[in-house]
Amino acid sequence: MTSLQQRLKDLASIDLRGIRRGIEKESLRVQPGGALALTPHPASLGSALAHPNITTDFSESQVELITGVHTRVSSCLDELTQIHQFVYREIGDELLWVGSMPCGLPADETIPIGSYGPSNVGRAKSVYRMGLGHRYGRRMQTISGIHYNWSMPGVSTDEYFALIRNFRRHSFLLLYLFGASPAVCSSFVAGREHRLQALGNHTLHLPHATSLRMGRLGYQSDAQATLSVSYNSLDGYGASLQDALTRPYPPYEALGILNPGGEYNQLATSLLQIENEFYGTIRPKRVIRPGERPLHALRERGVEYVEVRCMDLDPFEPVGIGAGTIAFLDVFLLHCLLADSPPDTPDEVAAQARNQHRTAERGRESTLRLERGYEEVTIAEWGAELVDECAPIAAALDSLHGGSTHVDALASATAALRDPEHLPSAEVLQAMVREHEGSYTGFIKARSELIKSDLMKRPFTPDMQARFERLARESVEEQQRIEEADSVPFDEFRQRYLSLKRLVV
Known about the structure:
Blueprint: H1 3-10, H2 13-17, E1 20-30, E2 54-56, E3 62-66, H3 73-90, E4 95-96, H4 120-136, H5 138-141, E5 146-151, H6 157-170, H7 172-178, E6 183-185, E7 197-200, E8 203-205, H8 234-246, H9 250-255, E9 282-285, H10 294-301, E10 305-311, H11 323-338, H12 346-362, E11 369-372, E12 375-378, H13 379-401, H14 405-418, H15 424-436, H16 440-457, H17 462-485, H18 490-498
Antiparallel strand pairs: 1-3, 1-4, 1-5, 2-3, 5-10, 6-8, 7-8, 9-10, 11-12
Helix pairs in contact: 6-11, 7-12, 11-13, 11-14, 13-14
């Protein structure tokens, strides 16, 4: 019996039944013709500052739909579906863009930044986004994805960090299996250097790409590339993050906090304005208290769950992710938790970044090899080994829940490793060429229309409508309470929030 199998055997069934997950799903609102909607966040959806299920991400045009925490996959997807149904009923003839890479975009400066009202916390959210726009460009921030939040009873902070180290080693497999962004609208890279190839009308791609969202054109930052973050312990991770949050960065110092007109450019001139600016495929997380810094919460109370951030929107799934993908994620994350997880090193972390970029941009290329220690292996070889190691985990989950969902998810992964033409990234390109003359926006627009029509036809009871209308009203009332409770000027609030003492325990 391997050490992984022994650890799995040691887990009580109650622990496996206690797996908890939640989903955060981003989507751009677009006009019927496929251009970015420049309208404000619809008032009937409630307050983007205070609504528990419906907010915005970077832009007013980018909704973020958030489920609660669920122990059953079906209930999680049901809630996400109902949130979609309500939103579709409130946005008129607009669509939710079902691709991770954005629709046709206007000039960078005209992409509207999220607005959260005049409260100090609301202004801070907008100023933070203004800073992101200055630092990385607004177009990059319009990329959308799925964040999968996952936890299990009894897992310690050290065990979560072991999971994270293994996840970072093996996340190439998720990009390969579930990446669905091999092409972009040419407006996304206007004025930028790139190595993309023309495909169709206003469309660029890489022929073997899986997830351009996770490649060099996606959520990447030359400034953050200077960070060397270790995931060997909470102490080490916290020290790395604290350094980035407090270290002045000359280009951002040159930008300044205020522009000549006295408006805010950014929250801070440090390498990171706040913790959420740090990009990564996975994050250690802890629910924070009002006004608390995320790093302080982690240091004081430990890791509560992990947030998987590398999943593309699947344009073939009504809510961007399906039950089979979730089943694979649950097995994969359990494997990351149970398998041996040696400490990471700077050299290994650098190799992980190279593996991520290779898989994102060339993952379906048959000759592609990834770095694994002192050797190089193909994705098919390494992926097959990981899937084989996952087999007892899938069997254990199926024996608990009945059916064969988890074993079937591994079987699908094995088939995709043997024949990449059935991967979502390949099927996206095939459908674009076959049905839309190679047009990315044509394909995603058609899928967006089809999915909206499908979800609008599904049952949505008056009670469901009334519940979401009540949540919208309550969120507006909560925003008013937040605004009325402010007691200090914004800049004093900003400086207090960013002070070093708010980061330490």
